[in-house]
Amino acid sequence: MVSPRQRMLDAYRGISNERPPVAPEFWIYYPARYLGVDLITFEREIPFHLALKEVFTAYQCEGWGALFLETTNPEAKVVQKVSKVDSETVEEREIVTYRGQEFSQTIRFHKANPSWLVEGPIKNLQTELEPW
């Protein structure tokens, strides 16, 4: 009998096995639990790709995950305000000023659930991005 890890490695090479391979998709729950942190700490402080690498190594498997890249513009001024909503929830409001125009967004982070966008940075696509 072939191990799940070997089935996955064989699938990458085009070799078939007695059972189909399953690629682990750890998303954020498993890495956060493995690292022993709540989702607020995980999403705000730990680089996702490094957490995945650590989990893949621990489970001796290969897998995939998204890279949540952010670009910074030296011309943009960013102000962040973090406030506690309740004992389980934190809200982060970010205001980016670029070429005299303000873009604000609000994200809520919860200890046990993934974050969600409360307010997006673009409110009116026609008027806010028209000059660009």
Notable characteristics:
alpha+beta; 5 helices; 132 residues
Give Rg in angstroms: 20 Å
Number of strands: 4
Sum up the overall morphology in one term.
Answer: elongated
Strand order of the largest sheet: 1-2-3-4
Uncertain stretches? none
The secondary structure category is alpha+beta
Task: Give the terminus-to-terminus CA distance.
Answer: 59 Å
Total individual domains: 2
Could you report the average pLDDT, rounded to the nearest whole number? 87
Helix content: 25-40%
Query: Major beta sheet, specifics?
Result: 4 strands, antiparallel
Order of helices and strands: HHHHEEEEH
State which percent range the strand residues make up: 25-35%
Describe it for me?
This protein is α+β, with helices and mostly antiparallel strands and 132 residues long. The protein has 2 domains: 4-58, no CATH class; 77-122, no CATH class. It has helices at 4-13, 29-35, 39-45, 48-58, 125-128, and strands spanning 77-86, 89-98, 101-110, 116-119. Helix 2 (29-35) packs across helix 4. The mean pLDDT is 87.
Short structural description:
With 132 residues, the chain is an alpha+beta fold.
Record the SSE blueprint:
Layout: H1 4-13, H2 29-35, H3 39-45, H4 48-58, E1 77-86, E2 89-98, E3 101-110, E4 116-119, H5 125-128
Helix pairs in contact: 2-4
